[in-house]
Structures are given as structure tokens and as C-alpha cells.
Amino acid sequence: MKNKIYESAAAALEGVVFDGMTLMSGGFGLSGNPETLIPALKDTGVKNLTVISNNCGADGFGLWMLLNNGQIRKMISSYVGENKLFEQLYLSGQLALELNPQGTLAERIRAGGAGIPAFYTKTGVGTVVAEGKPVEDFEGETYVRETWLRADLAIIKAWKADPEGNLMFRMTARNFNPVMATAGKLTIVEVEEIVEAGELDANSIHTPGIYVDRIILSTINEKRIEKLTTRPRETETV
Predict the structure, then answer these.
(1) pLDDT tens digit sequence for 72-111
(2) Homologous superfamily of the 9-115+140-217 domain (CATH)
């Protein structure tokens, strides 16, 4: 069996990054971000990236690092709010943006992994989202045609992996990671724990190892909270 485990993020990225490539990066907000692979990508100096991700990190963290370093040319995203650098670069014309409804983004990625080049959806009909795209009526309703998304490289984060690359994700950190694992020509996964072969329950595997090319043990697991919202604890009465 081919060894999929690499000693570091830098080693896993060696020979697979190139200027102008398309990159998928898992995560939703700051949950499930490939926290180890993103800084390693920054260190490669690769530029003119087209990045497919739900959002572009937060100030000082996640994909923001690549954006701040001038390595991203275009974002294909769903949520771009509350990122001041993103706003500044987009409004000044230094960053291209393809904005997608969130469900459409997820389905475009899933379609890319499933080999489905196009599909129809009602979401976005009659809005700027549908501009320039074919529309068609089905059973009296209008639908807009969306195309698949695929990438040269997908970087994702999982909870556990075995040496064959079978993956388990934890709670909301699952988000876009499983579909992105299927849609990259090459997929690199960082995990919190690598277990022995056969240790993962087959019924609990979220992504089969056939989709995974390289694995590293993550060295950054901060799991930051983007917005902490709390309420005062109720005072106990005696």
C-alpha cells in the first residue's frame, strides 16, 4: 500500500503547488479550517491562486494569511462579510470574486466530485446570481443552470484518519470538508489523530481513503471562536 502519511505540511505540499492553480480549502467560518496547511502554503510563495472556500478566514487567521500576502487572485465563496481586508481588496479591484448562494456552492463542489458538469436550481433565479447563466423551465418553474467546481488541490481538515486515508470528522468541523475531498485532483488532509489500520469503525467513516492522497498530523489546532456570544449565568435562588 502506498504510504500516504507525510512528516510535515511542507513535505506534503512539495511538488504539487504552482502559480495560477485552483485551490479548495475546507472550513466554515473558523470551524474545520486546515490550520496547519494554510501557513505552509503561505511559506511556499505560490501566487495568483483561485481559492474555493465558504469564506476567506478572519483577521489574522485562516485564508486571510494568503490574502494578506497577496497570493490570492480570485475567491469563489459564499460568505465574505466581516473581513475588512477582503472588502478593501475587492472594492479596489485587486481581488476578483464569484459569489455563490451557500447551498449552491456546496452542490457545485459535490457535483465536481461526482463528475456531474452541470445542474439546475431555483436559488438565485431573477437575481444577479443568475446573470449570464442559462435558465430553463421545469414543470412551470424557472431554474438557473450552475456548473461544477473542481480544483487542482484540496486542503481539508479531519478529526481522525487511518494510514489508508479513511476519515472521520467531528461535529460542525465536517462542513465543506467531505465534498472538497472528492473534488480535488489531489487532496491533502491534516488530522488531529492518526490511528492504526482497521481501528476506525467502517460505519463511522465519513470519507473513504480513495479520495485522499496525502495525510499529515496537524500541529495547529487552535479552533478559534470567531464570535463569542454569551449570556449571564442565571443567579441561583436558595
Answers:
(1) 999 999 998 778 899 999 999 999 999 999 999 999 999 9
(2) Glutaconate Coenzyme A-transferase (3.40.1080.10)
